[in-house]
């Protein structure tokens, strides 16, 4: 019996006891009333009415208790019905469980039987496969055995052949030994005859020497001394003539060989034409963008210049602004910052700082990637990370319009080709040529020439002394002492002096040519001046009656010195003074 049934039964019993007590009390009260005399007192009547009311209330309470009992009985009956239904469901569940268990057992027996059959089939297959594999292995072993037997037979045949050859060789050696013994005996006899003959010749030579001394009146030592002195003088003269011929031949051959090496190195290097510009120009989508760049009362342009360190020039040029800065990397960061701001459209001081940080990181990444690409192209490894950073900054540095990083790559290739032709250390010379302009990355930050700055940097970051000397000597600020320094100078001149390597405006080019001709034409005795090879050579024709040979040399030196002092030009300019003397006679 469930707990609910127990509680319900207890409640019914309590209500029954209360009702019975109330009925008993009411019956006793009615008896007393019926036995007592009818009073006429109002108090008695009131008490009687009250008791009757109490009796009615007790009766209603009894009725309510009976109804409650009936409800409780119905609830108990429902509970009993639910309990019976639950018992029936539990019985059905147990029956279903027994059925499922029986089915599972039957299925398990079926699966087990099928597994046994599958295992027997697999075992049969494995036995068959093992039998076949054993047969194959037996066949392989039989074939191997046959091959080994054949090999043994071949080896036995070779051993027999070698034994036969060995026997023949022993017989031949024995025959040769007999021949050598006979030859030794003959040589001993001949040696004895030669000794006797040498003794006879020595005696004859001694007699002849004595006769010569008697006839010439000189001893052998004095004659030998005179002979040695005469031969030594003649040898010296012949040696001097030979040295002169060798030196002349070496000069002509060396000059021709050097031309061949330089021309071959230049031909084998394919470089780009100059396409760099020294001015950063940013094109705008419209002129109204200039006002947004300037901002209210110029606050945007002031914020841009203070954050980036780049001067922004906004003039009447349609849809374009100029950026000016001595530091090419900073100028590129400023250009990229302004480009991002124009594309974004939001231009205010806080936004300028955010975009500047993004542009700076992007330019640093581009520089580092460009330096790594250049190192890979040249084939240089194991270089200090700070040098890699400085090389990346040269991506935005130009020299007479030529990109410095591309110039370093081109110089390294040319130097490597020349070193290979001369059978020198190619990696070291390529490293010298590639790092020779590393100082240009700091020329706007450190005082001094880029050659000395680059040498200090290379020495600071662990480069060898050959590399350091080649860097500091490539502009003759330090006299070159090694072949690496000389080849670095030559490859630098080839890269900077090739056609199309460096660019200058047409106006500056024409003015430079005119000024070169004016300088030469202003000297005394000059008749004609010709500027040749794009201004790299000038030929000065002088009057022979006014300028002699010494004056021509002085004139060439004065013209070259004045050109060095007044003009700025890449590479070098050759000054050639031509003095021609003509003598004319008439035959009658």
TrEMBL record:
Its EC number is 3.1.-.-. The chain crosses the membrane at residues 6-27. InterPro entries: HD/PDEase_dom, HD_domain, HDIG_dom, KH_dom_type_1, KH_dom_type_1_sf, Ribonuclease_Y, RNase_Y_N. It is an enzyme of class 3 (hydrolase). SMART domains: HDc (SM00471). Its main location: membrane. Residues 48-114, 187-221 form a coiled coil. Residues 404-497 form the HD domain. Gene3D superfamilies: Hypothetical protein af1432. Pfam families: HD, KH_1, RNase_Y_N. The keyword Transferase does not apply. It comes from the Bacteria. It is found in: Cell membrane. Keywords: Cell membrane, Coiled coil, Endonuclease, Hydrolase, Membrane, Nuclease, RNA-binding, Transmembrane, Transmembrane helix. It is a single-pass membrane protein. Endoribonuclease that initiates mRNA decay. Belongs to the RNase Y family. This is Ribonuclease Y. The lineage of its organism: Bacteria, Bacillati, Actinomycetota, Actinomycetes, Micromonosporales.
């Amino acid at each position: 019996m469930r707990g609910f049934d127990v509680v319900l039964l207890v409640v019914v019993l309590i209500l029954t006891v209360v009702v019975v007590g109330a009925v008993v009390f009411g019956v006793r009260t009615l008896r007393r009333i019926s036995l007592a005399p009818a009073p006429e007192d109002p108090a008695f009547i009131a008490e009687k009415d009250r008791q009757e009311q109490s009796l009615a209330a007790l009766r209603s309470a009894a009725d309510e208790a009976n109804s409650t009992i009936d409800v409780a009985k119905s609830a108990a009956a429902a509970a009993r019905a639910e309990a019976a239904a639950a018992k029936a469901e539990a019985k059905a569940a147990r029956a279903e469980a027994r059925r499922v268990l029986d089915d599972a057992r039957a299925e398990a027996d079926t699966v087990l039987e099928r597994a046994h059959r599958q295992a027997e089939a697999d075992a049969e297959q494995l036995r068959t496969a093992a039998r076949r594999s054993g047969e194959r292995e037996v066949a392989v072993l039989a074939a191997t055995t046959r091959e080994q037997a054949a090999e043994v037979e071949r080896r036995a045949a070779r051993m027999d052949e070698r034994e036969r050859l060995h026997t023949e060789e022993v017989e031949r050696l024995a025959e040769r030994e007999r021949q050598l013994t006979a030859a030794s005996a003959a040589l001993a006899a001949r040696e004895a005859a030669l000794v006797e003959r040498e003794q006879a010749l020595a005696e004859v030579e001694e007699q002849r020497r004595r006769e010569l001394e008697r006839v010439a009146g000189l001893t052998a030592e004095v004659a030998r001394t005179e002979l040695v002195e005469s031969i030594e003088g003649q040898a010296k003269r012949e040696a001097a003539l030979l040295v002169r011929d060798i030196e002349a031949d070496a000069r002509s051959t060396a000059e021709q060989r050097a031309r061949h090496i330089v021309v071959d190195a230049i031909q084998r290097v394919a470089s780009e034409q100059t396409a760099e510009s020294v001015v950063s120009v940013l094109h705008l989508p419209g002129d109204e963008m200039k006002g947004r760049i300037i901002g209210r009362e110029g606050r945007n342009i002031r914020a841009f210049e203070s954050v980036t360190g780049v001067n922004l020039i906004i003039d009447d040029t349609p849809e374009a602004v100029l950026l000016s800065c001595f530091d090419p990397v900073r100028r590129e960061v400023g250009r990229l910052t302004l480009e991002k701001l124009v594309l974004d459209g939001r231009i205010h001081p806080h936004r300028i700082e955010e975009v500047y940080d993004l542009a700076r990181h992007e330019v640093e990444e581009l520089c580092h990637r460009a330096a790594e690409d250049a190192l890979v192209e040249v084939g240089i490894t194991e270089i200090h990370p700070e040098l890699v950073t400085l090389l990346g900054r040269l991506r935005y540095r130009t020299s007479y319009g030529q990109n410095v990083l591309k110039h370093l790559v081109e110089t390294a290739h040319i130097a490597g080709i020349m070193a290979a032709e001369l059978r020198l250390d190619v990696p070291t010379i390529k490293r010298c040529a590639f790092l020779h302009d590393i100082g240009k990355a700091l020329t706007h930050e450190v005082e001094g020439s880029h050659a000395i700055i680059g040498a200090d940097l290379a020495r600071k970051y662990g480069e060898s002394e050959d590399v350091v000397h080649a860097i500091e000597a490539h502009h003759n600020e330090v006299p070159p002492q090694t072949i690496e320094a000389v080849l670095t100078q030559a490859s630098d001149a080839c890269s900077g002096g090739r056609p199309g390597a460096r660019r200058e405006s047409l106006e500056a080019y024409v003015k430079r040519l005119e000024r070169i001709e004016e300088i030469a034409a202003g000297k005394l005795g000059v008749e004609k001046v010709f500027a040749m090879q794009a201004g790299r050579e000038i030929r000065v024709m002088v009057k022979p009656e006014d300028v002699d040979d010494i004056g021509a040399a002085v004139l060439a030196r004065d013209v070259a010195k004045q050109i060095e002092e007044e003009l700025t030009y890449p590479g070098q300019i050759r000054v050639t003074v031509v003095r021609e003397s003509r003598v004319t006679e008439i035959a009658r």
